[in-house]
Design a protein that fits this description.
With 370 residues, the chain is of the alpha/beta class. It folds into two domains: 172 residues, FAD/NAD(P)-binding domain (3-Layer(bba) Sandwich), CATH 3.50.50; 135 residues, 2-Layer Sandwich (D-Amino Acid Oxidase, Chain A, domain 2), CATH 3.30.9. It has twelve helices and 17 strands. The strands form three sheets. Strands 5, 6, 10, 11, 12, 13, 14 and 15 form an eight-stranded mixed β-sheet that branches. 46% of the residues are buried. Bound molecules: flavin-adenine dinucleotide.
Length: 370
């Protein structure tokens, strides 16, 4: 049929989709308003499960900065230490990752056009061409979604993160998660080491909170939770950003589809969107190939990605709703009880950052303590 694909957004997900389509011999062009794909890459963190990265096919190896074995979860003075003897996750430099994704997409034959913001008129023009498939991979605040009237995500997480040099890092292979509905309303604060003395600290708060993420970050830094890390450390940068907390109720309309953060394919527990976004991009590439080769409907994308990934994404939502409603004291009690029941051992052995369904299956098969 000679159809072509226009992808709006040269983020990791748009570029991953472009590479996949180009490898299938489909004509694809990616547009982004940025002049450089790594611009603003520091707004987000780069913590990805080892298994998820392998499944996603994202070219991350040259961007690796650290390996992670586990996490310490804090609620007030109570903590849960979940530590595996194996590497569970990688910390990847997001600027390098963006460049790697771009060069992979271009080597596969995709065209990447930078410095071009796509406005309403241009998007309507693109979608009016029935020989063109238009994909919105344009992030949480998707112009494609709003121009074509896709339903919005119900809640977002507002974030602020900063990197610190000369920090005191006890174990560079462990992240810290700090829960407190007073400081990080319906989400959490975090610390993620890059090296022995460089660390990222960040916070997320629900868009329902009445404050900005910058104010929340100041409160987090003054809360005493991370005093041990930042005593004497220097702040190197700081970025505010946004994460969608749930998938949009619809992600395909005619010849327009959404993927990645634009579709809300994000884990509600952590805000991680790269692994599921990349997996959904693969599903979209399969559907587009069938559309281009035999005229099959794009609607199959909606059914396919939901069939494969809704169970885990919903479970992340349920877990998020669960922890986000606890008051400080109840969460401390919950942590204390979980520890007594052997949760640290269970999660250290069976914890899965991406697929809670596997963890829950094991829980029902074996119980918390074996
Ligand atoms: C603080 C923070 C920490 C995070 N940590 C992690 C993590 O550790 N692990 C993880 O998996 N995920 C993490 N995420 C989420 C992850 O960053 C996103 O899920 C991911 O970047 C989404 O990729 P994307 O390609 O869909 O969208 P984006 O990366 O947002 O890319 C969208 C692109 O579209 C372009 N664009 C937008 N509108 C237009 C337009 N009209 N015309 C042209 N171009 C346009 C933008 O310039 C941008 O380049 C984090 C997010 C934040 C904010």
């Amino acid at each position: 049929m000679g159809r072509s694909v226009s992808i709006i957004g040269a983020g990791v997900i748009g570029l991953t989709l472009a590479k996949d389509l180009a490898l299938r011999g489909i004509e694809v062009t990616v547009y982004d308003s940025k002049r450089n794909v790594s611009e603003g890459a520091g707004k987000a963190s780069g913590i990805f499960s080892v298994a998820g990265l392998e499944r996603s096919g994202i070219p991350y190896r040259k961007g690796l900065v650290n390996t992670l074995n586990g996490a310490v979860l804090w609620a007030g003075k109570e903590s849960l230490r979940i530590k595996s003897k194996d590497t569970k996750a990688y910390v990847v430099d997001r600027a390098i990752l963006a460049d790697l994704c771009k060069s992979d997409a271009e080597s596969a034959g995709a065209k990447v056009v930078l410095g071009k913001r796509m406005d309403r008129d241009r998007l309507l023009e693109m979608a009016a061409d029935k020989d063109n498939i238009l994909v919105g991979a344009d992030g949480a605040v998707s112009t494609v979604a709003s121009v074509f009237g896709f339903p919005s995500a119900k809640e977002h997480i507002l974030t602020y993160k900063a990197e610190y040099d000369s920090a005191n890092i006890e174990d560079r292979h462990m992240v810290g998660l700090y829960f407190s509905n007073k400081i990080a309303y319906r989400f959490f604060g975090w610390s993620c080491p890059y090296t022995d003395d460089r660390i990222e600290l960040g916070i997320g708060i629900s868009s329902r909170a009445k404050i900005t993420s910058t104010v929340a970050f100041k409160k987090f830094m003054a809360s005493g939770m991370v005093d041990g890390i930042i005593g004497g450390a220097r702040q190197a940068n700081g970025f505010a950003s946004i994460i969608p907390l749930s998938a949009r109720a619809r992600t395909v309309k005619g010849n327009v589809a959404l993927v990645g953060d634009a579709a809300g394919q994000v884990k509600a527990t952590t805000g991680g969107g790269i692994i599921f976004g990349a997996l959904c991009a693969k599903t979209l590439a399969n559907v587009i190939e069938k559309n281009v080769k035999s005229g099959a409907s794009l609607e199959a994308y909606e059914k396919e990605w939901r069939k494969r990934y809704t169970m885990d994404l919903k479970m992340h939502s349920v877990l998020h709703s669960y922890y986000s409603t606890f008051s400080g004291k109840s969460l401390e009690t919950f942590f204390r009880a979980s520890k007594l029941l052997g949760a640290e051992g269970f999660f250290s052995k069976y914890g899965d950052m991406d697929r809670p369904s596997l963890m829950i299956k094991r829980f029902f098969l074996r119980g918390l303590t074996e």
